[in-house]
Design a protein that fits this description.
Layout: H1 2-21, E1 40-43, E2 47-50, E3 55-60, E4 64-69, E5 91-96, H2 99-102, H3 112-120, E6 124-128, H4 136-148, E7 155-160, H5 162-168, H6 182-185, H7 190-203, H8 207-236, H9 245-254, H10 265-270, H11 272-291, E8 295-300, H12 304-309, H13 314-324, E9 328-331, H14 341-348, H15 358-371
Parallel strand pairs: 5-6, 5-7, 7-8, 8-9
Antiparallel strand pairs: 1-2, 3-4
Helix pairs in contact: 3-15, 4-11, 5-11, 8-9
Length: 374
């Protein structure tokens, strides 16, 4: 046993030395999927954010490379630039939302903010405060912070995503009413932290461990694809071997659990806490905007899930909420209603995903330009 341990340690030491001297400089070693996204950070005020003045190539969704640039206040932008607290030269439009509005999978010029800026021209400045996995309480806390810091906005567009209601259920607060940060909500036992730290250390310094990690990742991808293919074949009542990749990807795009609450009574009942908390912080947000003379609009839109199965709750719920609280409201549901649902979803959403592609984002931009008085 001692001999085996000695041999293992010797091989590992040699492996680490060779890996650091030779293999780390080769294309084989590169794997952007494992790179730590250090520019995405926790926030002691509003849960999480992106660092200001960053310019990174970020792998999103496992394979898509997007260029992520932020300005001096950490908002996604076309370039690293200084944002003044007051802009007297341009009307300032603030976008508030989650990953759809951040523009997941897209370079800035193709995101909603980028398209709006290009369409509206130099008389306007479009600022995008959106970050993936945001929800109403974070919207409120973040915008409150920037308004208290002295930043002025003329118009705010608040995009309420289907997943916001689900995400809101997992936002926790301390006794002072502050949102708990990622570190406080995702604490691990010390043995797990140590285990994962050692695992990452070996993966990043040992060719042997790196190979087995890559093999494990590929095996996991294949296993998950086979699971999806089985589910898709059952849903479509097709033979497993006749179920094509498009069938599997379409199933994946329309069967995200967090989207089921809008047309399923049992799922709707499960998200009551999220609905209640979302209402509470949306009211706070719109009151805050009104007090600071910011024209505001609440905007809802469907996922591929809602396009395919319909929506009994999300659109109607927030339309009634807006009428009750005298909030300007826009629904994008009609723009996403087409007879050939499958082709429309493939044409306007990222393949295998729920987020808009360039064309889907353009549909949203065109509707806003038509409906709003900027």
């Amino acid at each position: 046993m001692k001999k085996f341990v000695l041999i293992f340690i010797s091989v590992l030491v040699v492996d680490v030395i060779i890996s650091n001297l030779i293999f780390k400089n080769t294309e084989y070693w590169e794997n952007n999927k494992w790179d730590e996204k250090w520019w995405r950070v926790s926030s002691s005020i509003y849960h999480h954010d992106i660092l200001p003045n960053t310019d990174q190539i970020e792998v999103w969704g496992g394979k898509i490379k997007q260029r992520l640039i932020t300005n001096s206040i950490g908002f996604r932008d076309k370039e690293v630039r200084k944002i003044e607290k007051v802009n007297i030269q341009q009307k300032r439009i603030l976008l508030i939302g989650d990953s759809f509005i951040e523009g997941s999978g897209l370079n800035f010029e193709y995101t909603l903010a980028g398209q709006l800026q290009r369409n509206l021209g130099n008389d306007f400045e479009v600022l995008n405060s959106a970050v993936g996995s945001y929800s109403p309480s974070i919207y409120y806390k973040k915008i409150k912070y920037y308004i208290e810091e002295g930043y002025k906005f003329d118009q705010a567009l608040v995009f309420l995503d289907v997943s916001d209601i689900y995400d809101e259920m997992f936002i926790k607060f301390n006794e002072q009413g502050d949102i708990l940060t990622y570190e406080k909500t995702k604490e691990r036992p010390i043995y797990k932290t140590l285990f994962y730290s050692i695992g990452r250390l070996l993966r990043d310094n040992s060719t042997i461990f790196r190979f087995f990690n890559i093999l494990s990742d590929r095996t996991e991808l294949i296993k998950n694809y086979i699971k999806l293919k089985i589910k898709a074949s059952k849903e479509l009542k097709k033979d497993f071997f006749k179920t094509k990749r498009d069938d599997v990807m379409f199933y994946r795009m329309t069967h995200i659990d967090r989207g089921f609450w809008t047309f399923n009574d049992n799922k709707f009942n499960e998200v009551q806490q999220g609905l209640s908390q979302s209402e509470k912080y949306l009211i706070k947000l719109f009151e805050l905007l009104k007090e600071n003379y910011v024209n505001s609009t609440l905007i809802v839109y469907p996922w591929p899930t809602q396009i395919f199965y319909g929506d009994e709750y999300h659109e109607v719920y927030w339309k009634n909420f807006s009428e009750k609280n005298e909030i300007n409201f826009i629904s994008l549901y009609d723009e996403f209603k087409k007879e050939n649902k499958r082709d429309f979803i493939f044409n306007n959403f990222i393949y295998g995903d729920i987020h808009w592609n360039l064309d889907g984002t353009k549909i949203v931009k065109d509707k806003l330009i038509k409906s709003l008085k900027f």
